[in-house]
């Protein structure tokens, strides 16, 4: 799918494509309420809307929210795009399908950037600044038997994401994966990854995985 991606907005890449494939397998259609967190260009919300779903997109970046709206208009579909921190703008709502492609790249700083390109991928020394928050927040926005689809790198502790979801009442497992060579950002940090034991010496590939989690019980 072609989308507009201005400077400062995360352009769809391999991880986006893997998550899009998982979204399509869920077959969201008319009457299905979908939520895309960290939406970026809005491509996943647009994909759901084109299938007839009631799609909502959220991003903390105002430029990303505007871009998501523009891409929906470009593809002649309707989405609700709102600005805010993760699920805060939709507090109290429930969704049948939630997709997330958050920042997950390990970075030297222990703080999430508030501006600049790194905001789209930097996520603290272990890559889990956003992932851990999503794990805690996801159950509150999932409808009974709702599905959460989250994509992340193997460098940011996949096992921790699965166990965290199970601890919050979700049944989780990896349902898709693919391996890709390091891109420019990862290549620059490769020596630092080696020093931290995140990759083996000389390793210049990472695995992307999609974790599918299902809410088996009704939310409180």
What brief labels describe this structure?
220 residues, Rossmann fold, seven-stranded mixed β-sheet, 7 helices, 7 strands
Structural write-up:
- By secondary structure, the chain is α/β, with parallel strands linked by helices.
- Helix content is 31%, strand content 26%.
- Strands 3-2-1-4-5-7-6 form a seven-stranded mixed β-sheet, with helices on both faces.
- Helix 3 links the parallel strand 2 and strand 3 (79-83).
- The longest helix is centred in the first third of the chain and has 13 residues, at 14-26.
- The model has no long low-confidence stretch (mean pLDDT 93).
Helix and strand layout, with pairings?
Elements (H helix, E strand, L loop, with lengths): L13 H13 L6 E5 L5 H8 L3 E6 L2 H13 L4 E5 L11 E6 L28 H13 E12 L4 H10 L2 E12 L2 H5 L1 H7 L8 E11 L5
Parallel strand pairs: 1-2, 1-4, 2-3, 4-5
Antiparallel strand pairs: 5-7, 6-7
Helix pairs in contact: 1-2
What's a quick, concise take on this entry?
The chain has 220 residues and is α/β, with parallel strands linked by helices. It is 31% helix and 26% strand. It has a single domain, classed as Vaccinia Virus protein VP39 (Rossmann fold), CATH 3.40.50.150.
